[in-house]
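explain this chain.
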Amino acid sequence: MSDLDRIDFAILGELRNDARISNKELAARVGLAPSSCLTRVRRLVADGVLRGFHADCDPAALGIRLQAMIAVRLDSHDRAVVEALRAELLQLPEVLAVFHVAGAVDFLVHVGVRDSEHLRDLAFDALTTHRAVRHVETSLIFGHERGFAALADRLRAPTGTP
């Protein structure tokens, strides 16, 4: 992957704010010709900097009335056990994200469910009875906003020439 310059960061910032922006508008906002802008966006995708373009859905509109973060501690840290559980978690429809972490727990699992009974059933059926799981602790999420302050600072701050 090549080094990113201030134009690349400007493109990323604009796409972060509105991934549906037209290439023509994006080019105007970052001060490039549309063909040059499209080439840069394609390079950012090819280099793996831009990993995708996503729709942000309202969880409540999808029937998700309750979100939680479930901390999972394993009995064993064998690579095969860790990978198998990660893969199993990602297959559960309630799982929104899985974080493999260091520290007192091994996984943080972000889930979205209908209600507290659904959360309880998920915890019992998918986690506490799992052969590899030693301990589960659930924290309710009262609010969730995506905040990329560090990324936003980086998007504004890079120096160098385009």
